[in-house]
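Below is how a single chain appears once it has passed through the pipeline. First comes the sequence as given, then the structure the pipeline wrote out for it. We keep one example in the README because the format questions we get most often are answered faster by looking than by reading.
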Amino acid sequence: MGESLYVSHLFYSNPTDLYDHNIQNRIKKVQYSLESKTPIYSTVQNTPASVIDEFLIYKHESKHCMQHLAQERQKEKDGDKKRIRT
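Resulting structure:
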């Protein structure tokens, strides 16, 4: 359902008007931290629990998205193989 809502909202609104800019900035911080392998805070003890929660949510959601994309690509490959055989 989430995907269908996302796709349908593109017909009647600008996506950037719906995004929470604070959350988008926090996502960018987590992405940067992961890609550069630098911690957001100096130690785990200094890291607020909310930041750790956001990090875990980000990791879970990004893993889910990557799995979904891999499944979609596999479906496309399987569909291409069926068309070639017939």
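The chain has a mean pLDDT of 84.

See the next section for the split statistics.
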